[in-house]
Known about the structure:
By secondary structure, the chain is an alpha/beta fold. It folds into two domains: 3-119, SH3 Domains (SH3 type barrels), CATH 2.30.30; 123-283, 3-Layer(aba) Sandwich (Rossmann fold), CATH 3.40.50.300. The protein is built from eight helices and ten strands. The strands form three sheets. The chain has a five-stranded antiparallel beta sheet with strand order 4-3-2-1-5. It has a three-stranded parallel beta sheet with strand order 6-9-10. The longest helix has 19 residues, at 3-21. It is elongated, with a radius of gyration of 23 Å. The mean pLDDT is 90.
Amino acid sequence: MALEEIRSQLKETEAVEALVAAYSLEVQHSLKANVDFGGIEEDIAIQCPAPGFVLSFSKGDYLHIKQDYTEDWLIGRVVGSDTGLGFLPSEKLLQKVTDDKRGVAEPGDVLYQVIVYQKAPIVRPIVLMGPSLKGCNLTDSLQNALLGVLTRKFSDRLVIVKSKASVSSLSPRQAYELKSQVYEAGKSNHIVYLDCDASCPSEISNLELHPLIVYIQVSRIEVLNKLLRSTCQDKSKRSELLAAANYLYDLPRGNFSLILTDSFLDVASRKLELFLESYWISTHPPIPPT
């Protein structure tokens, strides 16, 4: 056996041992993938210390990173209910792979650099939104009722982060502090509930918090209007609340991670519980026996 082949085998053995050992390590940080990566199907996989353990992922996937193994390879996993550890390309390597695939721009064309990874909280925060604006009795009562259910169900697994002001009025310093609080809370590996006043998903997305937005929807606008009439006597304020509710109602469903349309609180609560239990499992995979 050639010396180079022996070295390659030793290198792979060490890499696999590091992979196994990483199961007992804490998650160091999290990334959101903005491009697809084909794992062992990629030409670059052969350069990995353990080519058979290179993971694939899709644009939009979140990755939990356990260790920066080399300059080019990270040890981590794709956040999901049935995913194991493997090797993932570093930002520098993935950028090179992505740029090589895009090729050279034709004369007159402009190729903008793709940001291949975005930093994300280890645990993405849960945000309740709707059916209309906060400050509305209907909105506040529904959201408080669901938060009460979460507090009882996940009492020992829940961290609450509260915004000091409405999201749209946060100063740059306040926005930075809120982001830092959410990222710090995510390190606890608990479910993070972000208590904030936001009128639409885009306001929160500007904070780069990657939230799981749960939309509480009254499925029929005429029913919502009736409810608002009974809880808000100010006609101009009621019109504002109804306009906000209509805006949320008309947004593409992809803006939300979960939509609750149930008329009964216990049914909506159960759906929210199942959703969060599923997310909990995806962020807390079992450690395989050694």
